[in-house]
Amino acid sequence: EYFSSVEKMRQLVKLEESLIASLEHYIKLHEQKVAFLHRQKDLLTKELKEAQKNEVQYVSNPITAFMIANRLVTDWERIRSFMAMDVGAKLENSTTLPTTDDVLGIVEGLARLQDIYQLDAKEVASGKVLDRQLHRQLTPADCYQIGVKLSGSYNYRLAISWLREALRRWTTENPGVSKVEIMNALSYALSQQGEYEEALELTNNVLKMQPDNERARLSKDPLEKWIDYKKEHGLPPRKPEPDYGNYYSLCRGDFHRPASDLATLHCRYERSRSPFLRIAPLKVEEVNHDPYIVVYHQVISDKEIDTLHTISKSSMKRAMVGDDNKKEVSKSRTSSNGWLEDFMHPVVRAVTTRTEDMSGLTMDAAEQLQVGNYGIGGHYLPHHDYVVPEEGKEPYPVIGKGNRIATVMYYLSDVEIGGATVFPEIGVGIFPRKGSAIFWYNLHANGTADSRTLHAACPVFLGSKWVANKWIHEHGQEFRRPCQLDQKA
Ligand SMILES: O=C(O)CCC(=O)C(=O)O
Ligand SMILES: [Fe+2]
Fold first, then answer.
1. Does the pLDDT of residue 80 top 70, yes or no?
2. Which of 76, 180, 267, 366 is the most buried (most CB within 10 A)?
3. What pLDDT score was predicted for residue 488?
4. Atom 9 (ligand 1) nearest CA
């Protein structure tokens, strides 16, 4: 699943490079083959001309008779086998090629970004997005492909806008796709949205251009029936768009917190948690008092980050959702991650120690370090880091150390656009800054779940977002977690 991580997507560039090299090799071999065949043809033509000068004499002379017979048997046989010879170098390692799922994953990521940033197809196709030149102008064929893939993932609303854009951009000089194909695809997407009248109009226009176009002929009848049905019964009510509250505006960074809240938040040095902090105090930025959320600045160096990247890259897999009992791949979390244990590298151990210094909590009850990288439009929809176990059941039974009392998340990269960590219930959004870490408690001081810690990773628009999570569990923290009042002081 290349699409689940920008790091993996980078391999596609290498893959394309090697495929082009194979193609070049193939073309060279072909050129050699064609040159050989030209030479043979010239020789044979010359011989034929000789034979045609006096056919009878030619075939009656034993030498020339032998020559023509031999040419037809041996030479032509050589040519025949040469023509059939497969000069193509095998396209390298086809198993590593991306799949249609990758293309779908990318298009779905694009759809998320369009929704959050309210981008229409016209703007994206122009290449100038959010006032930045992000890519070249898209061709009608590009727009058509995106529209068709969006249709394939049932996102007809956006598919329609892309197919309209394909049609708008279509010219006879720059086709890459036929106008009729676009019209058919648009007609289909419109019909899926209940827009039967416009769908039929397009279908009729296709039939005017190509009276025996199979697809248009097949859809005309059903469309007419649906129009009659709609006139008589109306359309079933549309499924309401899900309400994400302030999630989108937090992701865009244009949600403004009241000045009275901001006025209570400070930046300070943290010196008291451990003796080490006396000589290297932590830079703390308060983000919210209740639930308690802070950002530590400059807590992990570029060098340490490079090491974490290097040692996690080979083990990165598509991230799952769920608890110990049931884990699965989900569209709600599109990233890749890998787990690092303390013994793997001194840097991993150092991060664990630092997490202990920052939080004051014991790492005896912490999970391994999870390194994550997001893909195109990669996100993690609003969720809680704790679990609510069924009555009488233990949270995280495999770990056996209680629920996730706190989360520490290190940012291992900057992100050019997007990728904020947001808390929709309390209206807090934090944009990644390489080297910083967020800390928050997931549970109330009495151990019950604090539902206000609902949080999400916003889709990454541009850049490669890397994070490292350390989830800390409850056991052994009883006398370590400072009470909320201490924190405020
Ligand atoms: O990447 C982020 O900003 C948040 C990630 C997160 O919430 C998680 O992995 O549980
Ligand atoms: Fe989370």
1. yes
2. 366
3. 46
4. 469
CA distance 74 to 323: 72
CA 392 / ligand 2 centre spacing (Å): 25
Q: Whose CA is nearest to atom 10 of ligand 1?
A: 385
Burial track 317-334 (b if 16+ CB lie within 10 A, e otherwise): ebbeeeeeeeeeeeeebb
Ligand 1 atom nearest to CA at 455:
7
Confidence of residue 240 (pLDDT cuts 50, 70, 90): confident
| Ligand 1 neighbours by CB, cut-off 6 Å | 380, 385, 421, 455, 457, 467, 469
Say what the pTM is.
0.83
DSSP-derived secondary structure letter, 101: H
Alpha-carbon span 412 to 8, nearest angstrom: 16
Task: Provide the pLDDT for residue 91.
Answer: 56
The mean pLDDT value for 325-350 works out to 88
pLDDT (mean) for 208-235:
94
Is ipTM strictly over 0.95?
yes
- Taking the CA atoms of residue 247, residue 252, residue 254 and residue 260 in that order, the dihedral angle to the nearest 10 degrees is 50
Task: Give me ligand 1 centre to Cα 371, in Å.
Answer: 10
Q: What is the pLDDT of residues 263-285, one digit of tens each?
A: 999 999 998 878 888 888 999 99
Closest alpha carbon to 473 in 437, 443, 439, 438: 443
Q: Which of 467, 471, 472 to mutate to test the pocket of ligand 1 (most atoms within 8 A of CB)?
A: 467
Tell me what pLDDT residue 401 has: 95
The answer to whether the beta carbons of residues 137 and 123 sit under 8 Å apart is: no
Q: How far apart are CA 358 and CA 370, in angstroms?
A: 18
| Tens-place pLDDT, residues 285-322 | 999 999 999 999 999 999 999 999 999 988 888 888 87
- DSSP characters over 163-228: HHHHHHH--SSS-SS-HHHHHHHHHHHHHHTT-HHHHHHHHHHHHHH-TT-HHHHHHHHHHHHHHH
Please name the residue whose Cα sits nearest to atom 2 of ligand 1: 457
In sequence order, what DSSP letters do the residues of 217-263 get, joined into one string? Answer: HHHHHHHHHHHHHHHHH--PPPPPPP--TTHHHHHHT-----HHHHT
